[in-house]
Model the fold of this input.
Amino acid sequence: MHPDDAAARGIISGDRVRVHNDRGELLLRSLTSPAVGQGVVAAHLDWSRLAEDGKNVNVLTSDRLTDMGGGATFYSTLVEVERVESVSSP
Done:
């Protein structure tokens, strides 16, 4: 995510974050970069191997098809990102 978007949420690179919407959520480590546009969150579909909860970004996407051509609608998915405190080991 863009550093300005991250800063507004109190997030820095390496923070544990919850990416979520009304369809689902997943836990990831943040990476900030000015190469990502403001207001945009980028993720790889294979991040399930990087997510501590074993989920990938598909939990956030709709299974609805486009009205023209019946293609996937997952390229424009609204999400929120929030910093999550790390769980302490006993």
